[in-house]
Amino acid sequence: MCSINERTRWGVTELRLAFPKQKEMHFKDLTFRYTEGEKILLLGPSGCGKSTLLQVLSGLIPSSVPMAIKAKKKEIPSNWGFIFQDPETQFCMPYVDEDIAFVLENRKIAREKMPDLINHYLNLVGLDFPDPHQLIHSLSGGMKQRLAIAGVLALEPDILFLDEPTALLDPQGTEDFWQSLQKVSNNRTLVIVEHKIDRVIEFVDRVVLFGNDGTIIDDGPKERVLKQQKRRLVEDGIWYPGAWRDHLSQRIQTKKLPDYQATVLTLDRFSVKRNGHIKCSIDSLMINRGEWVAVIGKNGAGKSTLLEGLKRLLPTKGKCIWNLTHPEEAVAFVFQNPEFQFVTDRVDDELAFSLRIKQCPPDLIRRRVCEMLQKFALASVRGNHPFQLSIGQKRRLSVATALMEQPQVLLLDEPTFGQDAKNTFQLLDQLSELQQQGTTIIMVTHELEIVRHYATRVLEIDAGRLVSNAHRDRGSGSEVIGNGHQMDEGEKLVSRN
Ligand SMILES: Nc1ncnc2c1ncn2[C@@H]1O[C@H](COP(=O)(O)OP(=O)(O)OP(=O)(O)O)[C@@H](O)[C@H]1O
Ligand SMILES: Nc1ncnc2c1ncn2[C@@H]1O[C@H](COP(=O)(O)OP(=O)(O)OP(=O)(O)O)[C@@H](O)[C@H]1O
What we know:
Residues 471-497 are annotated as: Disordered. Its EC number is 3.6.3.-. It is a peripheral membrane protein. Keywords: ATP-binding, Cell membrane, Hydrolase, Membrane, Nucleotide-binding, Translocase, Transport. By secondary structure, the chain is α/β, with parallel strands linked by helices. It contains 17 helices and 22 strands. It has helices spanning 50-58, 60-63, 96-106, 114-124, 141-154, 171-184, 197-203, 222-228, 230-236, 243-250, 303-310, 327-330, 347-357, 362-375, 391-403, 421-436, 448-453; strands spanning 9-18, 26-35, 39-43, 68-70, 73-75, 80-83, 159-163, 189-193, 206-210, 216-221, 263-274, 277-288, 292-296, 316-322, 331-334, 409-413, 440-444, 457-462, 465-474, 480-481, 485-486, 491-495. A seven-stranded mixed β-sheet has the order 15-16-17-13-18-19-22, with helices on both faces. The longest helix is centred in the last third of the chain and has 16 residues, at 421-436. It starts with 8 loop residues before the first strand and ends with a strand. It binds adenosine-5'-triphosphate (2 copies). One adenosine-5'-triphosphate is lined by residues 19-20, 22, 26, 44, 46-52, 381, 384, 388-393, 418. The site of one adenosine-5'-triphosphate (ATP) has 20 residues, from helix 5 and helix 11.
């Protein structure tokens, strides 16, 4: 073991950076240095610049992402791997096995050793294909994220830059990821951005806390930073261990939900196909107005497929009856990948788009756009291109556009992934308000706290089938919900036909 003085140090000194077409510099002379073997968590509100800084530290900015940057000193490591927020950006080849083989080839691994190694890295992230010669395009969002991680682990890098590596993973996948990383990270240096705080915090020794404007507010051992900065974390809406508990204890308990009794959706021998194959089927299901339905299940189970089938974005068979006058308009949809949704080149135009098509009065559109920019913390980026937003901002914009028309039914595919605490809680408060007014919410989520504290019904999908349909109720004892997660004491699921 070498002493700290002998270890290599990297980082940036007095960094300033300008995004294309932006006059103002991001980071005001930011200095951040780190040492071989350190395990560091970058914490800060959505949009403060965490992902951008990771890309500067790895040298991706400006070498692969051209950007004007100024720094007194830059020390960039050589053997690093980068796990991106958006797994789609990570792949070089069309097939699963080829993508990992590509990395192994770069490491000059002999061809005959490759099949075993490919399986080894896929197993590390819990991907188990009978034949790994699978089209990457045909994987679910969470499966792609697992593959992206496997590809980076196959590099066997000394340094890992991890940008929200578990955002799209199911709870078991998240746990598996941290366990796999534990196995391979002994002497490695890790610089991590992660909103799901509870697990990652066990893993790191140093926490760097950023403010809204990208300045470093504190930097030091995790115990000290989390303790001394607790007020700041709460005020800025940054995740900290116990944030959920504090939020729920302060949450104004919503009035008893109105029982509308009116069926809004009936499914009968309903199935949804992708590429000619049935990927999700439900024999029989009825959902009432004002319900909050959580759709849970493992990565690749068929949750997004179900939602896309309900919105008729994929071919379906059987009955899917919406008890609504104009279902095409009354049912709003939020894709798992927010970029699929954007149709304009400015944030404010994106919000105004659907109301303009309906020829609503300009005054009303302006008022509504301003309201949503405030509610979704997007006012400072209102003139930006939607593709230039941070992941959290993109996610909020996609949800905000769906809410513009005040739809009667909301189909939401993981609307809270990649969000800081403040924006997560604000979104949930808004959805609760809409639910009180009778909006039906059908939401795919891996966030068990939402399932526990907001859902009125939980549908569990496994291998393309509805395996459990349970009404959420409070009672005694505890029960197990999807992915082997124990419900809190005092809660239980009541089965429904
Ligand atoms: N290409 C770009 N052009 C203009 N602004 C950009 C560009 N890329 C990022 N930004 C802005 O820079 C800021 C920092 O973005 P970044 O993705 O680094 O934030 P982050 O802290 O990782 O956020 P999140 O937690 O939401 O992922 C954001 O306000 C974003 O809108
Ligand atoms: N574009 C596609 N083409 C073909 N098959 C696909 C496509 N997208 C997903 N699939 C397959 O359909 C099945 C269900 O995928 P789906 O995206 O519905 O899963 P999911 O439960 O939403 O997963 P996740 O939690 O990872 O988002 C998976 O077996 C997946 O491989």
